[in-house]
Amino acid sequence: MTTPDGFFIRTDGPIPTINLERVGSLGRERQIVIDIFNSSISPFLEAEGLPGNRYSVSRWDIAQDNQSLTTRVVMTLSPDSPDWEVTPTSVGSQSGIVIVPPSGVSISSIPDEPLSTNPAIAVPPGSQQPPQAQIPQPQIPPQPQTPRVPPQVNNSRILVAIDPGHGGRDPGAVGIGGLQEKNVVFPVSTRVAQLLREAGVDVVMTRVDDRTLDLEPRGNIANNANATIFLSIHANAISLSRPDVNGVETYYYSENGRQLASIIHANVQPASGLGNRGVKQARFYVLRNTAMPAALLELGFLTGSEDIVRLRDPAWQERMAQAITQGLLQYLEPYRR
Ligand SMILES: [Zn+2]
Questions:
Q1: Measured between alpha carbons, how far is 196 from 201 in angstroms, rounded to an integer?
Q2: 247 C-alpha to center of ligand 1: Å?
Q3: Residue 117 CA, ligand 1 centroid: distance in Å
Q4: What is the pLDDT of residues 165-215, one digit of tens each?
Q5: Which residues are known catalytic residues?
Q6: DSSP letter, residue 240
Q7: Cis omega (within 30 of 0) on the bond before 141?
Q8: Which DSSP helix (H) or strand (E) runs through 309?
Q9: N or C: which end of the chain has fewer CB within 10 A?
Q10: How far apart are CA 143 and CA 148, in angstroms?
Q11: Do 184 and 312 reside in the same domain of the chain?
Q12: CATH number for the domain including 190?
């Protein structure tokens, strides 16, 4: 919502924990990236519903990442905008993020808007569709678009990029019993790499130990190695209060990733013994910023009462590694003749 002084974004639960990143410098168009951890926003909140062109905010992007239970809000500011102070707070039973200009900066010249008496976050009327799980990325400075070219494959060199999600200081999702996503996806990923190599296929891994790694280098590693295909391996989470949500899902972004995602899913889901949440399109960073067919596998829900039993079972992890490998080899079959 817009207030006479700035903005207020309401969140569920206690006072939210946030991470703030400022991109760009004063006097130029720049962005403030606010990650709100362990939060959920109204499923009806969309960037379009936030007040654009108000107080020198030229654009809002907002998205929820169900993997990490993080909501990302990106404010794009025009060059004349002040720097904003972003403060998690709670007023009465209501928690949220207060976004105001730094103290001392007058915004009295900015056209005012009546203070809404409705404390809810902006909800565009008639909106029935929850926003896609997508995380807007800072776009300043503008980055050259990764060219989308058909995979250049020849028989002599096939290279599979395997990306174990999260790692190091980033545990990924934390599920029932405290099981961390990184501790599930890493052994599965390394085992996939081993099985592929045994099958005579070269592999590049984005990380080979428990280290912190941003999303950008993950894509770069695959692109620079000119990998044939890219697979990011994750486990899912929604909320510890939703043990009823279980199942495997596989994502792609570009059309050339759809077949890869479908084949992996068709191998993994039946072998998993878990529910089938299907093959879906989503704007995950690693899918959008890899030049080759790319897919992202969510092995099951760490917060799911059914899935958690399997996710922590090393024998099940081994079966998943075998099913993933089988899917990758099946996709690569036409190239290996
Ligand atoms: Zn993840």
A1: 5
A2: 15
A3: 38
A4: 999 999 999 999 999 999 999 999 999 999 999 999 999 999 999 999 999
A5: 298
A6: T
A7: yes
A8: helix 307-311
A9: C
A10: 15
A11: yes
A12: 3.40.630.40
